[in-house]
């Protein structure tokens, strides 16, 4: 049993969330989910103090999780990852491809290649068949090493460190499969940002992260947590442009929006989107996607479970990585 359990973990500004999944024949079972609050200021103290406090909290989390659930999948912010598409000679073997990617990326990277972790996935041949396209991701080794060290100190075993948006894409795929629709856009709403994602059968997935500025998030939501930053016209405009971009570039008619995230329950967010876009908006409970009656219960009447979106996506990412042996 223990070998198949994967725990997706998200460390947020206010809490640590964990979702434990287990492959069960041809489906997935939700084994457990946990949320531990973080004390205020844990991300503003000195670095070593933060490290020790987070490790202590991760140890507390480990004790709350089921036995044999130490394999974890971790997310890192999208803005800490460099992503490029490189064209490589199609005649090269796997070892030569790895060297060619490293060499080509080093010529375009603002950082020394020896300071970076690289990962890549093949996208396919070009029209002439002379080159292969590779999607390449890079992040600083120090960023990954610090994350891995914290979790190892807490007695956990990191198996995947991946972009947060990739986990959300996996969650979108699960939602589309369970609900039987592929024409809904997912928006993950946080206090300081929102992320839009959608996947396609024959194209690269669409992922867009927009950081809310102080005047649209902190100054309003901190003073009044029930006042939506979507009320700001500039934020509404950004969402509208993203929806239009998906529809035009990917030639798809978006039929609705799934809302997930820490504050997706606040009714005014949903109401603002419905007023601004001619689309149905539903709050999604990611945890219900793994129940036998998921198609009935995953559309939530309130925000129950929606805050686990990123952690659930990373758990799916970890299982996908174990099954396919790649992270991108």
TrEMBL record:
Organism annotation: Vibrio galatheae
Gene3D superfamilies assigned: 3.30.420.40
Domain of life according to the entry: Bacteria
Pfam family for this entry, one: PilM_2
Position of the signal peptide: none
Protein name, as recorded: Pilus assembly protein PilM
